[in-house]
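REQUEST ID: PR-0412
SUBMITTED BY: lab tech R.K.
PRIORITY: routine
TASK: structure prediction, single protein chain
INPUT:
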Amino acid sequence: MRILLLSMPDSFEHTPILAVRMPNGALASLAGNVDPHHQVAVADLVVAHDRVRETVTRLVQEHRPDLVGFSVMTFQRRTAHRLARLVHTLVPHAHIVIGGYDPSLATEAYEDPTLGIDFVVRGEGDLTFRALVRALEQGDPVDDIAGLSWHDGQRFRHNADRHVTRLEAETVRPPNRAARVLSGYTFMGRGVDVVETSRGCTYDCSFCAIIEMRGRNFHTFPLERVIDDIRDARARGGNVIFLVDDNITLDVHRFTALCEAIIDAGLNDDEFIVQAMTSAIAQHGTHLAPLMKRAGFRYVFLGIENILDEDLLFLKARAKNAAREHGRIVGNATLAAIDHLHRNGMYVVGGLIVGNPDDTVASILANLAFARRYVDWPYIQHPTPYPRTPMSKEFRERGLIVNERLEEWDGTTAVVKTAHVTAEDVEFLRWRAERWMKVRHLPRAMVHYPRFALRHWRGMLAHTFRGATWRSFVGLEDARATFHRYKAVRARERDYLDEDVL
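STATUS: complete
OUTPUT:
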């Protein structure tokens, strides 16, 4: 079979396409897990965000797919719907299959017959997609494929869920990066790739969809496979490796062993990025942080979430941000974790969430002041009630959701208000403070990525200060006017396909 796999072009505000174009690791994994005689093409549309229609049309004409698959997150749903209609028009005979967080947790949103979608892969897709391809190739029924929803010609049917895959058993094969047919994956001008070493988390943060996707569990790939995967990513141009695990520091001893394996394999001469828990870094940082530095880690996304205990309780994130002594919680671990990372020359990407149900202006400003003082690059988001996440129920019950335009559910558009602050005010406070935090990091980018920074500093500043004019810089107009112009620019950026011409 000829298979074309597409990821959506929609990107996050905090990862501007000028500076960051990450590949979709899930699609490469799907490509690596179908039987090898199939012809698979993977296209990450983030590297063609300004020519989506032309790129998809060309790829369909070149590869003549029998099966087209999409990977979709909630804020990408509108684009996915439009692309499904486009693909169905271009190749009416091809099967269309959808997977990812949003189709898994809101399957009903993809059952509209005008979309032309035939299958929805729920949860982990590697084995489900392999089984689907085999069934289609052999003309077998699909009603016993776990994790699959399918259209029977009249309505969608939903098979039983698939059990979570135990990665240690090596049933999931390595990704097939050779299937990628587009290029241009970059991080600050350097080639970038993603590597997965584990899946799952045992915490139950209210903002996270992982538990709904796969339950509370944690499974790991063998370290030998991980090292081989890093080698493969590097051989294909990935000088920067982003470890995309759900919670890699859940097992600190394993993460320590991974750092040591990277060093022993001589793979520490390039750069690694990782997401980490504050509690793990704080508790083990004396030994772990120097080891991470030796292994080549430069940026650490730290899940701070919030500095106020009452907000951490709502986010159900207090446990993973707790400082412990003799097994007892003795405070917040954030400052200790940041100190360990900074002392060892690593940069903190500060993940915070502001605009929770009972937030006031004062509580929001307290978190912004903390970010301004302690983090190197802000990744400040607003709580977003993604399908079936625990927080979504409370927001709906309290009537706090004010924006149902899902393309704006990207984390940096405030789609919920608090009991005390309007959604616009929540977003305005973050936007106003965050721009200047980003500017502060530019000299460090100059040091580590001089060629990129010297070439693109104007573009980076232009992106950060979209909507600004000389009048706003000299204080001749209210910041709200700049903010509203920025919002208009951001809205235009989200239109990757004009639905009127589909």
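NOTES: The mean pLDDT is 93.
REVIEWED BY: pending
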